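Board work, copied verbatim: ATP-grasp domain-containing protein
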Amino acid sequence: MRESLFRAAQKGAVDPSLEEEVGQYQSLSLTKECLEESFYPTKTTSALKSQNGEFSTILWPYPLGTGDAIDRANCADYFCNKNQSYRVLTTDSLDSSVSFTDDEKILLFAPFEYILPKLLVDNKGYLSYLGRKINVMLNELSRGYLWRNNILKLEINSDPATLDLQYNDLLTTFINSSKLTLFKGLQMKHFQKMQRVIDDLNIQSLNFRVVSNEKSLPRQVKAMFESYNHVVVRPFSASQGVGVSFFQKAKSLEIQITKYLKETKQRFSKKYGGRNIFPLTLSPFIEGTKIHDCIADIRIFVFYDPNKRGLRSIPAMIRRAQVPFKHSSQIDYSNALTNLNAPRARNAIHGQRVYPLANDNVLELIGLNRQRLIEACIGTSMIWGQAIKDEFSQAIFSYGSIDFLVSKESRKLIPIEMNGNNVGSHPAVHPIFLSKFGEAAAYAINGRS
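↓ predict structure ↓
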């Protein structure tokens, strides 16, 4: 990897990546079977084509302080190796009085937090950095960051019957930043829309509600409490578990809501540069199967295969929560969330938190087998394939993932989140397929892998 990209990705990383420890334990035969069986023919395009065959500046931003920024650096490095004419600029070079000529091809690789204060919209409708037109922007969170920093306007319709959002779009081409990757409510709606198709694959969508403002939050949570004792709340345009929390029927709702709003707005202001967390998405808490008495979920990646013109899904990892789940009366981030970027819990148990998914022994621990994993990969490709048809008219797809729980009660797979190309943890897959993410990203940029 280029030294400049490596140094940039390491700045502010909170934890070294754990996933490379499990990639070597993925079954090659099972991984290959999942890739083969999950192929889903899909049409997509490239940023080069959408920019009429010519562009000179790519912005590849990432959230500051995330250990998996190295995965995006790997993809950027793959692209640059295939496109040697690009000059890479990171925070090291941008900190100085950088200059560039009009005929140079530039790849800006830097944190959102560094880029946004100097990012504008020019008079033609392109994003512009230091006066230079941005042709392409790669990150699923791009439009969310632009909205919170008053660069992009969003209009959100939270009515359940017509749930949607609109934005005043720009001439800059976005890769993976679609309505779906912004809004958890639209993801839940998409899962429900796909239910008839994925039902035979033992995949079950969740009920959900969308909350448009603070005033309606108590009423919407109480409506969920009519059927469920515990409710999961997810904010708008966030990742890595930021703002995900729980409301419990047995406790004072007023106190819970007041605490949630205060803490989440503070976290958003610090991480994303804005305090707006609405609309919120509510769904029931589903107790998943466990590893070492800790709730676990699974992640399956999906990427575009430019050689065959379709999607393939590949098993990644199983993650467990930090603390054993003993009783539903005590639910918090430590025993119900699996994201690795969460603060370390005081009573966290020692030992491994990430496990290889394409591994017979590990699958058995969470109540799955080889056939169920293949079905999950088929479902992942189908869900994303339909999403690309429905939701990606204003963005280009490269790679993403779906996180699932395995329901303790029904043993069905419950899709809980769709992630775009901001998602990391690529080294969790079998090592011989690690380059597939770079290939997909390169194709999304210029139609060549």
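The longest strand covers residues 294-305.
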